[in-house]
Amino acid sequence: MSQTKSVNIDLQRERDKCTFSVTELTHLLDGGPQNTEERKKIEDMVLKEGIHNEDIPSEYLSHKEKYEQSVKKACLLFKMIRRLQEEENTGMENYRAVLSGMLGSAILQDGSPLTLHYVMFIPTLMGQGTVEQQAYWIGRAFNLDIIGTYAQTELGHGTFIRGLETTATYDPATKEFVLHSPTLTSYKWWPGGLAHTANYCIVMAQLYTKGQCHGIHPFVVQLRDEDTHMPLPGIKVGEIGAKLGMNGTNNGFLGFDHVRIPRDHMLMKNSKVLEDGTYVNAPSSKLTYGTMMFVRVMLVYDMCNYMAKAVTIATRYSAVRHQSQLKPNEPEPQILDYVTQQHKLLIGISSVHAFRLSAQWLWNMYNNVTAELDAGEMERLPELHALSCCLKAVVTADAAECVERCRLACGGHGYMLASSLPLMYGLVSAACTKVSQCVAAIEQRQKTGMAYEDAWNLTSVQLISASEAHCRAILMSSYYEETQTLVQDASDPLKKVLLQLVDLYVVYWALQRVGDLTSICERDVEHLQAWYESLLTQLRPNAVGLVDAFDIRDEILHSALGSYDGRVYERLMEEALKSPLNKEPVNESFHKYLKPLMRGKL
Amino acid sequence: MSQTKSVNIDLQRERDKCTFSVTELTHLLDGGPQNTEERKKIEDMVLKEGIHNEDIPSEYLSHKEKYEQSVKKACLLFKMIRRLQEEENTGMENYRAVLSGMLGSAILQDGSPLTLHYVMFIPTLMGQGTVEQQAYWIGRAFNLDIIGTYAQTELGHGTFIRGLETTATYDPATKEFVLHSPTLTSYKWWPGGLAHTANYCIVMAQLYTKGQCHGIHPFVVQLRDEDTHMPLPGIKVGEIGAKLGMNGTNNGFLGFDHVRIPRDHMLMKNSKVLEDGTYVNAPSSKLTYGTMMFVRVMLVYDMCNYMAKAVTIATRYSAVRHQSQLKPNEPEPQILDYVTQQHKLLIGISSVHAFRLSAQWLWNMYNNVTAELDAGEMERLPELHALSCCLKAVVTADAAECVERCRLACGGHGYMLASSLPLMYGLVSAACTKVSQCVAAIEQRQKTGMAYEDAWNLTSVQLISASEAHCRAILMSSYYEETQTLVQDASDPLKKVLLQLVDLYVVYWALQRVGDLTSICERDVEHLQAWYESLLTQLRPNAVGLVDAFDIRDEILHSALGSYDGRVYERLMEEALKSPLNKEPVNESFHKYLKPLMRGKL
Description:
The structure is a homodimer of 602-residue chains.
Chain A: H1 2-5, H2 9-16, H3 22-30, H4 33-47, H5 63-87, H6 92-99, H7 101-107, H8 115-128, H9 131-142, E1 148-151, E2 167-171, E3 176-180, E4 188-189, E5 200-209, E6 212-222, E7 235-239, E8 252-256, E9 259-262, E10 272-273, E11 279-280, H10 286-320, H11 339-374, H12 381-409, H13 421-430, H14 436-444, H15 452-458, H16 460-486, H17 492-512, H18 522-539, H19 543-548, H20 554-557, H21 568-577, H22 588-598
Parallel strand pairs in A: 1-5, 2-5
Antiparallel strand pairs in A: 2-3, 3-9, 4-8, 5-6, 7-8, 10-11
Helix pairs in contact in A: 3-4, 6-7, 8-9, 8-10, 10-11, 10-12, 11-12, 11-16, 11-17, 11-18, 12-13, 12-14, 12-16, 16-17, 17-18
């Protein structure tokens, strides 16, 4: 009761009229009440450490201070994880829960300089190292004796791997590889943690031996002295500069001036270079596929988290905010009563469910394929690769649009960093690829002749639409199928609302793509439009309940507009008062510039 | 010749194959060679002062330092303008050229805390003050004896003016108005320069006299002591906190605790309060219309400038950047050779022309209406109001999409602040309204009965589409008509390319809105699609020439990706090296946190 009192009255009214059990939906989303309980326990455990608290909100810090704060937080986080593992003997699942997803991003809101150590450095050692190499490196990496990252992209070269310029030339005289950056465009560019954090790096380079190039291979290179952290001779390393978002990730550049590493620093699980320089070919590249698949599926889950946060913020704000008049002489309505607002929010909510269930479906498919791989069957690998690539592209693009739409749906206040929405857009936007790359991946499998490429380019505008349509069809069918399974044991009211969301999603995309549906007539469009609006009206009373069920606690949501109690205006003012500019009534620039200008004495 | 040598070879090749005279187009856009010369002269004059130079790029500064730097720059800029006016006796046109448009934004890249002084404070004094009030205030304001801003929006209330809560209650005993903020939601929120810069403010407040409310009226209120700059008693003022962009504008909040101002600080050109408290009604509100119209037309021009910058950056980068392979064993093509890229860039270029010419057309229409107003005719005013509102909404939305599409078209490097595109998105995005407000403005003129409002809400998704379609139709027709006039005296090659751009724009929007064109059949769509792709192919060789013609010099473009010489990679590295983090090989956080963590001693 006492908790209810402090909640904004409009928000409370929304909760009172919700037709389904929010807790039931939360349990369903977590995969059962035990999982919900476990999740909350970990959240409590981690958040009570207070690492996420900031004296001055990071948006007021300088670029350099932001990096320093993110190193501090990342280190304290790992210290805590170590302690928890020792004290409470919690397993690796918790470890992952703390590092990724909602909780990790709540603590390191603008990215972590240690992410690539766990997400790319260690997995690549595991996937591409021989047993001996794994024995040597993985323990050191897990123990954080060394901090690594993974460098592939170059200043002049992105996703097209064959275009990379960095060379690793084998010298049989000394049994060493010589790493070299022949041009400015060959500098490694982008890897997180590379600039000032990592002291080791897996470098992807063109392997030359006996005068022949054998393509891209992975090499472990030490970048900095383990004791002083000074860059080693021949290593040119630094940060690439300020970015739209992710300014806590310490993205770096890296150039080599004939840097020598021992032969066994090439990861040789697949391909090998023998002592005399003989190249022995790789039996398969399935593990490269595997790592990328894992990264993509995780990314789709991440996007779902961001979208869930964004729609939670925008929906609660829309229940609290009143604006304009629908009818003369009536009070200003909640903006949630505007159909255009319902449209933006509910499509966002249904997309979270659609993507979450599709990611789950893809994950299951991946596990099946991995089992097949172990049995030597590799036929479904390219299909899965193309699918994951395409889903990733559609999901990241839609997520960016959803977050931005939520920001705009909050009007001017969405422009405040205190809303958390601009920062979130920066993060989501970092994951966007141009869908065209994926089309290439898919189309390559179907190509028929040499002239095809020109034709492909000429018609690629349509092709992209076509392959996007294909992806969306898969998304819709997996969303529909997986929801059917999900609601089997759900109560009737919950089942009803989840199925309404599926309908909304499908009708929305049918309307968006009317041009693709050539057999549709004008009356069909009108019918779809009417259906869509009726679904919005039916879902309207449950909008707040639907986002409450995502169960994102305030510390993780981190938004003045979206907190559970709906005290939007109080929080906006509280956040404003945290600005260092507000600590002094008169800024020194008045005395230095403004007053002299006003008195004609500048 | 010597200049040509340093230009990237791909970019030079693009320039060599351009089919029209870039200089001719520049002259056409400027409105004649004399204007081009004059513009360049002013640019030279202002830029040689070096105010735009920064020791450390502002993206590396803290929020407080950013404000301090923008005050410094704004003050130096005005000092220079004063000097130029005295020395060279240049008129007001130059004054405007320096403050607004390309040049002003090049110097104060993230907004100026003095903008509202010129854009709202002075114009409102001129528009709403009596002759006596103008005599008293305008000289002081122009002379910068005082610095003002304009406060309307409140924390809990946006564009719906009747909902504002701040009160100004007349006290006939002392002949004063008492300004008061009855609630937290009534705090003024957002005005630029309000936080720590302005010492005066025009405050929009609900006027109460003799116990009656007469709606919103403007009051001049002193906020800070003219000498010490300390806030006056009863004034609660500060900044609203960090935002997505515009962090140089010093947006503030403002609350009143029974603050008394003299009766004649109410601006009384239209409505009056007599000494005894009698309210005398306004004869018309035409001047409020006028100010807003002016602001909107200027805004459309601003959006054109941002779009021109964004497409210049993305097009030049697309000529320099090579990626992937179209055909096996061929070198990586320029990304400008991909049809999908051409599509993004050329639609952006044609939109700049479309919006520029539509703004010009609106401006002429506005001047005609103003002439009519002076003659007592006011019939066309609401139509013009609705049109300008609607065009503003469509243009700001499209500009934001265009800038963001250009950013994404630059791949990962578009995510770097050194590209200038993220900051530009922040600026353009600040101007976006939800198109729905404009629909309201238009629809209000057509409403027929009481039940209409419910119907309006229920079908507003379609209505917005319909009114957007109406706007786009006007845009297309004004673009077409104005281009016809523009090219009358142009050379044939230039005429051809400008008309191709119009075709591209129209065909693109026809394809985008196939759903609206119910009479269209499948074959028509195919025909349009083929036409569209043929236009892209024809325009492709002129892409770089078309953006060169915008003639945005490097200091104004301020982008590592878009400079005239195309030295993209060199500039990216040069910019990276400016990061304060790169001044030290080892950051102190290594010794404080990383090393202790690695040694288990944190």
